[in-house]
Amino acid sequence: MHRAVKHMPTTPARSGEGRRVIPLAVQANTAPPDRASLRWLAVAPHRYFFFLGMLGLAAASLWWLAQLWARALGVPIATALPPSWMHGWMMANAFMPFFMFGFLFTAGPKWLNVVAPETRMLMRPGALAFAGLALALAGAHIDTAIVAAGALAMAAGWAALLVRFFRLVRASRLADQVHARLVLAFFSLGALAHAAFAWGATQMSAAWVHTTEMLSIWLFIAPVYVTVAHRLIPFFTASVVPFLDAWRPLWLLAAFVSIVVGHGLLPVAAVLLPSQPIQALRLAVDVFGAALLFFVAWRWGVVQSLRNRLLAMLHLGFFWLGIAFALYAWNQAVVLLDAPAASIGLAPLHALTMGFFGTVLLAMVTRVTAGHGGRTLAADRLTWVLFWLLQVAVLARVAADAAPTYGVWLTPAAIALWCVVFVTWTARNLPIYLKPRIDGRPG
Fold this sequence. Notes:
The chain has 15 helices and two strands.
């Protein structure tokens, strides 16, 4: 069955009378068996990497939920390093790259007009990275050296995959490679961040670990997200919503990258340079970023997108980035006015990570899974319900930071709801990656 799909002709033959002649192999696959097999993970990159990414996401989320509820109930869980360190690193830089590589090796060859690598060539580095994730998560309860070994294994796996992607970029003859090259550059910083985290964990340095996690977010995850958003959101919208063009000038991409990278680097500059001017510059960057992002959300058609569920998920996910910058601006104004009582704590961070990263992840992976699984590009009722439950989880987590009095119970409740969303989503999608496309086509 698997071999028949692999060697199947990609274009149906036609008879002399112009009628389509469907090969027997295609006829056999139009009603594929329901039996799942791990062999199907090797058919397409998105299958393999999304499969591992969902397992990693579910494991990291449930692990953090267990930590929170154990703390709330007064049940001690022995750990080799503070659970918040592991949480920050796992949610920022552990499972997310799996989804990114699944997307890059699916869409990247089309962006670059090159032949895609065989999935089997990507599986060993991916397996090494996943083993590192599992090792680090287990090591969090045993020894920091095991955590560091897991982080280094992940760095090695990502580095090998980045070399593969670099070869695709180098082989391309297209003039427009800006998105692919930006993703490659920022992803490389993400791989280096694993090594930096390993060092911080072994040295038990809170400052080093925190800096590594923040730079992972602002020099890796966020720049990659806005680069891909700049390329795809206008394109997806223009193909669905009438009278909207695919507006994505290069200056806008430069602005996106500038505000996220600037936000990430300015706190480092505040340590090295006079603080007051840097703090004022941070406020200016955040205010400008929020204004720009809200304008772009409107220009890209966030209101018009609400007529299409799957498109609305993507647009509302992007809208969270503007909210995050607005909340960061609030906190920065609080610093400049020396009014700590008005601070909203980590609310901006969770608007960014849970709202922007989480919602866009849900939307994009759902879209790719449907499109490359022979399914309709639409969000069904369950997906739509999960999307709105995720929004409730984000709002609850942001509220827990803004009103710490209620955070004792709001935070565990928000993370429990997050787990319900993504564990349900994982359970629904994993079988899809283990079975052939429902339309019988290869991929």
